[in-house]
Every structure is written in C-alpha cells, then in structure tokens.
Amino acid sequence: MESQILTTPPNFAPATSEFDANAWMHVQLQRTEQALSAWVGVNAPANLGDAMRYAVLDGGKRLRPLLVLAAAQSVQGLPEAAIRAACAVELIHAYSLVHDDMPCMDNDVLRRGKPTVHVQFGESQALLGGDALQALAFELLTPSELEVPASVQAKLCRILAQAAGAQGMAGGQAIDLASVGKTLTEQELRHMHSLKTGALLEASVAMGVACATVPAPVQQALARYATALGIAFQVVDDVLDVVADAATLGKTPGKDAANEKPTFVSLMGLDAARSYANDLLEQALAALHDSGLQDVRALSALAHLVVSRSH
C-alpha cells in the first residue's frame, strides 16, 4: 500500500522553541486523522468500508497513536514508520472495541458517544469490519522497503501481534470474561489489565521506540514508563465508570458494577484508586527521567493527560 500522507518534518513537532502540549497533540492528531481517512475502508466491497470507517474515524482520544508518535519523537525515529505504526495500533484498538461491544461479549450499545457498530450496521458487518481492521493494521506495517526498512517492519509487526494476541489484549479479555462475579486480588487484577489494556499501550511506546536504534537501558526505561501508564489508564477508567455520566464518558457508565466485574474501585475504594493513579503517574515520570533522553516532554504530557482525563 503506497503512502498517501503529506510529508512531515522529521522532528514531529510544531516549529516553536517552547513546547506546547496542546499544539503538539493538535499537529499529531491531524496527521493521524489524515492517514486513517486515507487508508481505512478504501475500496472495501458491499459497504464493508462504511462499517470500518464508522468504527475508526471521527471519534476516540487517539492515545495509542499519540504514544507511538511521542515515543518515536523522543528517540528521533523514522517518521514514515511512526505514522504507520500509530495508525496500525489504533486499528487494532478499534477492532477490539467493535468485537468487545457485540452481544456475545459486553453487549454494549454506546461507544464514543454514538451507537456501537453492531447496532448501526448489524452483527455480521461488525464482525467482518473488525476482522478487516485487524488485517489492515498489519498491511500498513508492511509497505515497500523504500518507505520502511524490512527490519523495522518485522519489529513493528512482532510487537503489535504479541500485544494483540493470547499473551496480550485477547488473553486479558478472556480473563475478564472469566472473572465476572469473582473476587480478584490486586495482583490478579493488575495482571488482567496489564494484558487487556496495558499490553496495547505498552506496545504503542515500544513501536515508537522501534522506529529507531535505541540502547537497551533507554528501551527498559521507556518500557517502565509504559507499564505504569497502562495500569494508570485502567485505574482512571474504573474511576470514571463510577463517577462520570454517559454524555461525558461517551459510553455506558456503571457497566462494570452491573456486570459484577472486578475493578480497582471495587477492590480499593474510590479515594484509594484515585491516589493509586497519581502514584502510577509519578512512577511513569520517574522512568522518563531515568531514560536520559533529552526530549520526553510529549510523553510526559500524555502521562498527565491519562491521569487527569474526564472521559
């Protein structure tokens, strides 16, 4: 698949001497939306493209693509590899939501403030749309070698496949479904979410890092950052499921409690869960400091965004 994306300066950042997190995110979100719009659902038959585009475009926080691009910026990675990785991880995330929302899984009717894909297009189109998004993710990671070196392609595909499969997101969802009505320890809950939610967030950072050649200590520090961030994201998600309304959250609140799913709030209490999220933020920021990288401002801003978000 040939690139249809406008060229971008190698440093990924707005032309300014002072770092403006909102301006940086605006630029990266524009790049991501442009790329997704150009690549998702193009020439898909029998209205399949409509379901694919509905699942991906015009919605979502795009945290995973932003993490890819921020990590790639921090290590001065290849821009073309980074934008493809950013889109690929978002497609895996989107496909997982399409499938998770279906009646055989969570049976939810609201996602990103609009009807879920199976409600809008029917279960068959939702299932096929999710399948097609998963396949497209890996197609984006394997362009011609003139665009992305084969060695980088292989690394990106391996990272994403491992994060999405049985030892990652899919495995975590299986544990989640098997844990309904059960009481989990904090360690068990952390393990479940480190797979279900954390694996793809960790992969986002790892994919950004894989766009360059990076010393092992730097990789390890950024991996610690991503691990803390992944758990923090889920803790905040559990808090919001209790305190936010549907209009703010963009999805049905209170589903976890109604379905008797274990959460950090049910295990720790609301105040302790909020405090835990802040502790995880400090761990993530300390890991960034330990990386020794000169510019981790975007990664730092994203960590703060995860913990302070309201939806």
UniProtKB/TrEMBL annotation:
Reported cofactor(s): Mg(2+)
Enzyme class: transferase
Signal peptide: none
InterPro entries assigned to the protein according to its UniProt record, in alphabetical order: Isoprenoid_synthase_dom_sf, Polyprenyl_synt, Polyprenyl_synt_CS, Prenyl_diphosphate_synthase
An example molecular function term from Gene Ontology annotations: transferase activity
EC number: 2.5.1.-
Keywords annotated in UniProt: Isoprene biosynthesis, Magnesium, Metal-binding, Transferase
Recorded superkingdom: Bacteria
Cited NCBIfam families: FPPsyn (NF045485)
Family from the record: Belongs to the FPP/GGPP synthase family.
UniProt protein name: Polyprenyl synthetase family protein
